[in-house]
């Protein structure tokens, strides 16, 4: 089976889905089920997973026994804040090690601050976390994060929540060809065709939230994304035909035509 392996664990689904922005936890669960995802991201600063006693908890709707939780540091703008947030997540989730690191540069673009990201990654890896890291589409930075010991690198396709799709496929291709750990597109996917393109480039997976939660019908979009990721992966494995400018090739046999015997 063509599995996605992260930090030594194999997953059948290559689609990771966020748990924010849905109208309620019921819709969240329905979308997750439709997506087929096995890994769900949780913004520790915005989602209750037990830190707010007496309030509805995501744990009741999305049991950790059925899904792998990926706590993230959404809303953090410094390395210290990110590290502190993930230490809290480890406590709340009984020693959970797999985390998603993101350190943002500003509240308007949500573009990653790679300097703070690298600093946080170094600390978290030393403390034994399995770090999946959101970053820019800079191949040099991606390689540095791999060298630090991150278990997956997650370059953006375009800005978080923008739905603009893959703006620089060439950089994603370079990153995929340069580093050995899994490369997952994170941020910017807007619809199913974006997901398929990312997978056709050879990316190992995709993480998305707004593309599903922000759709008119999130559950139906989740289903569409599942199929797009699977189709894109199969197309990559199959190997597309080469592009041939001004070199048409008929798809039907050219021998045995009636005119040839006339």
Structure summary:
This protein is α/β, with parallel strands linked by helices.
Give structural notes.
- The protein is α/β, with parallel strands linked by helices and 262 residues long.
- Helix content is 37%, strand content 16%.
- The strands form 3 sheets. The protein has a 5-stranded parallel sheet. The protein has a 3-stranded parallel sheet with strand order 6-7-8, covered by helices on one side.
- The longest helix has 21 residues.
Number of helices: 9
Q: Cα distance, first to last residue?
A: 53 Å
Largest sheet: 5 strands, parallel
Uncertain residue segments: none
Structural class: alpha/beta
**What is Rg?**
20 Å
Shape estimate = globular
As an assembly, this protein is single chain
Strand-residue fraction? 15-25%
Read across the widest sheet, the strand sequence of neighbours is 5-4-3-10-9
> What's the helix-strand series?
EEEHEHEHEHEHEHEHEHH
Total number of beta strands: 10
Mean pLDDT: 89
State the helical fraction.
25-40%
